Fold this protein.
Amino acid sequence: MGISANPANRGQLVETFVNTAYDKVKTVHDNLAEILRVADISGSRQAGTVLPTTRKDGSALLGGDTFFHEDTNILYNWNSVTTEWVPSGFVNVTKLPITVDSAIAASGTVDVSSTPYTVGGNNLTVYINGVHQSDYTETDPNTIDFGANTLEVGDKILVIVSELISEVGLTTADQVNFTPAGTGAVATDVQSKLREFVSVKDFGAVGDGVTDDTTAIQAALNFCETNGFSISGVPGTYKITSTLVINCSGNLSDMTISADATVVSTAVRVGPNGAGQYLFDADIVLPFVNNPAKTSTGWSGFDSAIGVEIANVYQSRITVPSIYNFGIGLKVGGYSVGNVYNTFVIGVLFGNKINLQCKPGDAAGWSNQNLYIGGRYAHASGEGTAVSGVIHIQLRDFDATGPSAPNNNTWINPSVEGNEQEFHLDIQGTFNTFVSPRLEVATAVPARVNYHAVSANETASNSIIGGYDIAGITYTFSGAGTSVRNKRYGGTANDAFEYSANGINIVNRTGSSRSAPHIQGFLASQSAVAKTEASTDWIYRLHGDGLSVKSSGDTQDRVQITASGYLYFGRGSAAPTAGFRAGTLGEVNAQSVLQPETDNAVSLGAAARRWTTVHSVNAKFSAVTVANLPAAATAGAGAKAFVSDANATTFASVVAGGGANNVPVYSDGTNWRIG
């Protein structure tokens, strides 16, 4: 630009020139970094058909360097952490150069209809004279508005439009970096990170409660089993029409499995059911499992259908959120092998005819040494009262041979409430323990516990320890075998009972009379079922005041030993008063008449066991006839008697009957003589 020599306007021209130059220099200064970046002297921005390994000047690539692939129209960024080119997120980059004319300069509006963009889509980049711009309005996909009189004729505008990868449907998760937070974290890609977890929906499960999701869910479970992954559930109701088999860890608690029990005999099985097959060390949270076919009382049509079966599982941790409305809610057993050393956390088992059954799957299986924690076991009140076959927890052998009934299983704090059940607990096996169960019932009918045995002493040493309302349990026994040493401890103050089909009953009352015994015994024919201090059919009681013994039908003692030293004898119909006690001089004192039970049949002492001295105020012989005297030889020399019909009174003469004389007689070993 030249300066006119006309002195009239020279000063004005100089001022204009200086101001214009200042503005240009300031613009360059303010945008120097951007200008240098656009100029790209070092070659941080490149284009071509082969991903470069250095910058254009040969220097090392740095984070933020870009490369536009002219064959694929994908813009790449250099990742300095993983040292690789990764897609920037945009493809199909289009450049539109525009030179500002007078019309554009006047309106400030630029037509980009040949390369339309997405308003607000962050896929538009604009430069003016090499300087990146942000002060413009995205009017519509075909127009950019800079404002009137903001552009100068001759300005060079460069408009760059690109598309997001997601908008063109490309799947490039394996090319997107993911760096976990934390010191020492190792960078990976999004695809690898996402594939650390497997969802049932990855395999096409829908979860709308209508679509049959059996095949999709089983495919996901099979993939996890084969590849060592954990399975994840997604909220929804999943309809199934055949058994789902779980042999992997995972968390399916967000899922509800809907299995029509008239169609599916077992909804979910955890573990294999073949001989010699096991599932070891699994951590599983099961789904909610429901049978929609139960719409009224009873279980007609599916009383043997199983909600969840756990078989051949070893040393695993399994959570059971809820199982509703099957014939058997949860079944735990083994096929040809055991189901052992597991911990089960129970949520709700509701409305199943048998809420939980521990029972082997075949004659060679077993279900031992498992721990069950918590759980609400319940039925709808509309089912009725003490309904036959309705049970909360049942322990059973596979069949009547009885070789593998459950043993050494423990339940901690189960809530087995309600009055709908025939039995709250139905037990077969040995050394199974229930700690602090809640046995509350809705009516005055007590909680019910049954011990079942098919062989001698098969059901033994099972224990119920503490818990709500256990003092009111009613006990029954079933099966052809015997149940022994089954115990209940606690319940009310200072009591501990031991129940068995024959044996003792430990009451442990602290009173000092026969009505508050410590221990009481019963005949084997009576059974010790549900015996308390109120029972009357005991045969002995050890109590604070001594020992009482009677027949089972007696109302009073036949023998009573007291703590004060009395030994009483009675007939069982009245309190005994006859007996002995220790005297103050160490003697034994009779408390009433001491006599033989039958006349003339009992001896006091013997020839070899004679009394040294007999002290008596009055020694009285009852009169007999001579004919009724025993033989003199039998009575022995020295024996004495008194006869009422002697025919003589001569001392030392042989006595003969037939007279009317009352005389004493003695035996010389051969004859009875008067004297």
In short: DSSP finds six helices and 54 strands in the chain. Confidence is low (pLDDT under 50) at residues 1-7, 166-171. The CA atoms of residues 311 and 334 lie 5 Å apart.
